[in-house]
Amino acid sequence: MMHRSRIALALVFGLMAACDSGEPKPGEARPQAAQSALTAEQVVANHFDAIGGLSKIKAMKSLAVKGEYTEDGKTNKWTMVRARPNQFRKQGVHDGKPFTKLFDGKTGYIAEGDAALAPMPADKAAKMAQYSEFDDPLVDANTRGHKLTLGAAEDVKGVKAHHVELTLANGDVEHRFYDPASFLEIQRRISFKDKDGAPKIKTVFPSDWREVNGVKFSFASDGEMDGKKTRVQIKEIVVDGPIDPSTFAAPATNVVAAAN
Predict the structure, then answer these.
(1) Is it the case that residue 21 has pLDDT exceeding 70?
(2) Phi, psi torsion values for 253, nearest 5 degrees
């Protein structure tokens, strides 16, 4: 289920991208140019501006999200709560069984079915630690060990999309595509290895961008992998709402106030 959590994070939070270049000077507009005339950092900076601005993104302290995940005609509900700097909790239903994933800032935990929360295996815990980071990998990418590269423009839903290749510190690669007019993200290809070590590629198409507290979020995303289609639909996003102090404690039994 790790890649599914990753897609949900990408949809809700990873799409709020910023970069190392910072904000423009007062009165200075970001460069708007053809794909070949922009650097990867400039493409990302334009996207960042389009969704609300670096200062607003960095001012956020927590997020509480309600959503639904549909696959093979089955829809399951989930809730996710994140807090700076790297606390994370997600719970919902998968294959008819309830699950909880938790990162308390130091350790990853998981519970499935009727089982109690227990520490994750080391390999999964390492990935959970990375996914639990509050900021998208594009924020201070270089200092966090990630790499940005300008890729060749590609046709996405009828437009020649700006293409940024993001190589994460752990070696995973993401290809992010931005509408040349709005600089909103319209496609993402994620390369990863499944639980058996087999390489996989999932493509997602973010849409339904809405503003919450001055920042735009994608509220829907259609996905494709191994011939299967999925959909993530966000029902609610709360920025900096009340969160029960025990939310990120292990074991945690209390309900997150902002996600109720």
Answers:
(1) no
(2) -120, -20
